[in-house]
User: Fold this.
Amino acid sequence: MAGTPPLRIDALTLFPEMFPGVLGSSILKRAAEPLAHPADPTNVRPPVVSYHVTNLRDYADNKHQKVDQPSFGGGPGMVIQCQPVWDAVQDVESQDQRPATRILLIPQGVPLTQPLVEELAGLPRLLMIAGHYEGIDQRVIEKLAPIREISVGDYVLSGGELPAMILIDAVVRLLPGALGHEDSAHQDSFSPGDKRLLDHPHYTRPRSWQGLDVPEVLLSGNHAGIQAWREHQARQRTEERRPDLLDRPADPPIQPDA
Ligand code: 9WO
Assistant:
């Protein structure tokens, strides 16, 4: 059986050196590798994702590899020019026939939520553009329509690279076969169907540590009791810390393609 082809994720950035540590660790690393089944090493699942990080500077049209210029209208900082962004998008998109969903990571974007992550995890190709400095010339953003503009939170960073890696992490862990055991992803905070409760607390050995004991029910072997306790904890924490999650309608609207 030839499974579905791996999700292709491109990232366009002026700082490609930021990516290997994140993409080369933990689940994001394993998802990009063929993985032998522990019980049956002849049963190998192919990679579920491939990463392609591209330096925008490689698309500069000048020998100094300069891709930014001062902002028209004045003000501090530099703006990334249209041409290198456009040429890079055309080039990487030509490397795979499947249509890419273009994503720009900016504070002005639609907030990243678990339902949006789930939608993106179902697509064949994602192309993330990470701005830096003061931003990217608006005209190339217009010409790249449709493009999804996404924010990972209400704060300003020095660039879109960390948000791109956050989005990659959130998406890749949902891909079938990415995790060791297939059900872990569906028990976390914000998993679908769990009415968006925060996670319950966790405990491991030893049973007593610095005078603090593990809640008795977790040692009882009573699985229904354990599940009820965890649900109660989750609900209580959500009410205390994030009542907004209980108030809001179930699914935030998903941004249509621009
Ligand atoms: C710079 C700036 C300076 C003064 C006042 C407002 C300002 N906004 C910005 C700005 O948005 N700079 C961006 C830096 C340009 C695009 C890439 N950068 C970025 C992306 N910073 N933070 C993000 C980001 C992306 C997604 N989710 C959260 C933050």
The two ends are 37 Å apart (CA to CA). Residues 223-241 form the longest helix (19 residues).
